[in-house]
Amino acid sequence: MKKFKGFMGIMLLMIMAMAFAGCQKVDNGAAKEGKEASTTAEAGQKAKFETLKDGEEYHIGIVTGTVSQAEDEFRAAEKAIELYGAADKGGIIKHDTYPDRFEAEQETTISKIVAMADDPLMKAVIVNQSVPGTVAAFNQIREKRPDILLVNLVAQEDTVMVENASDLVMDADNVSRGYRIIAAAKEMGATKFAHITFPRHMSIELLALRRAIMEEACKDLGLEFISLNAPDPTTDIGVPGAQQYIAENIQPWIDKYGKDTAFFCTNDAHTEPLLRGVAAGGAIFVEQDLPSPIMGYPKAFSVDIQNMAGDWKAINAAVEKAVIEKGGDKRMGTWAYSLGYSLTLGAVDHVMEVLKGEGELLNQEQIVASIQKYTEGAKWMAENYIDRASGETKENHFLLAQDTYVYGRGYLGMDKIKVPEKYLKLNVDLDAIKEAQENAEGKAE
Description:
Elements: H1 2-21, E1 26-27, H2 39-46, E2 48-49, E3 59-64, H3 67-84, E4 93-97, H4 106-115, E5 122-130, H5 134-144, E6 149-155, H6 159-165, E7 168-172, H7 176-187, E8 192-197, H8 205-221, E9 224-229, H9 238-257, E10 261-265, H10 268-281, H11 297-300, H12 312-325, E11 333-334, H13 339-355, H14 364-372, E12 380-386, E13 393-402, E14 405-406, E15 410-411, H15 421-424, H16 430-438
C-alpha cells in the first residue's frame, strides 16, 4: 500500500510539472492569501493568463449602466468602440448595459455579464459601475473561462468578495475623499455639510466608510454634519420619482440649514436636481459622488455638449460658464475630468498592454499612466486599499482621486492636503451606519 501511495504521488507530481511546463503564461500578480475566499474566488486570485500571439484576434467586454443611470461610463464605452472598433464589426470592444433597476433585476445583470464569456475571443471583461451581481457573475466566468481578465470598477458589493472575485479593482478614493471633501467644503465657505443617501448605499462598505469619515472630519474641522434620506431610484419609485423628491426638497433644506451648507449625494440620478436646486438657492456643492463635468451639470443647466464629446476642456469651460450664469460662481465644483469615463478607458488601455505582455496588471504607475492619457493636465493620486480589520494592503485594489475644480475659481489644491492618519485607519460599523441612515431626516419611500 505504501509503495502504491508513493507511486501515485510521484505520478501526480509529474503530471503537474508537465501541465505547468506546457503553458507559457504571464502572472497577473493578483495572488493573495484568501483566508475567507471560496474555491472559486481562490482560483480567480491565482489565475494566470496567456499573452496574445502576434496578430491574434481578441475582444474586450465592457458592461455599464444606461445613459440615465451612468452616462459617463456609457459614453466611455462608446468612445472605446470609436477608438478600437466594435467586436461584431471586426473590432475589439463588445458593450452591453445592465437594467436601471439592477437591484430588482439582478439575475439579468448577472446573465449579461456572464454572457461576455460565451465569446471565444473574449480576453477581458470590465464592469463599471460594478453593481450587485457583478461578483456572482465574475465567479461564474472564472469557473468556465479562467483565461479571462476580470476588472471591477466602482464596486457596490462587499469589499473582500469583490477583491477575491476580481483580478483588478479600481474605485474613487473614498477614504481620502471623505476628509478632503469636507476640507474643500470649508475652504469654499461651508459651515454645515449635508449628506444625502439611502440605506442600500450605506450597506456598501466604502460608501459607509466615507460617510463615517465625513462625519468625523466635520467634528475636527468645525462643520455641522447633517444626515438626509432620499428615495432609492432602483425601487418602484424609479429615477423620475427619486429626482422629483430631490427637486421638491432641496429649497426647504436650504431654507432650514442656510446657504452656507454644502450638499452631497451618493447617487447619480439625484445629482441633476440637486445641482439645479443648489444653484437656485445659493448653497454650496463641492463635487459629485463620481465626479465629472457631465455628471448632472449639462442637464441641470441646459448645456449643449453634443459637439464636444471627449473634449473635456471644452466641456468643462461650457459648464463653468453656465454654472456662473446660474449663480454658482465659486460655490460649485467637480473634477475637470470624469472619473467614470477616465477609469473605463484607462482600464481598457491598461488591459490591452497586459494582454500583449507589455504591462503588469497590478503596476500602479502603469495604471495611472493609462488613465492620464485621457486627462491632460490633471494630477491623479493612487493608493492601494488597506483592509480596515486586518491592516493588510490589498495589492489588486486601487483607490484613485483627482483635485477638486471649483467653477469661477479653478483647482483648490486638495491633492496637497495631507489626510490625518486616524482617518486612514478608521473602522466603520456597517449595521450602525445603515440604521442611522434609516433614521435620518427625510422619507425613504
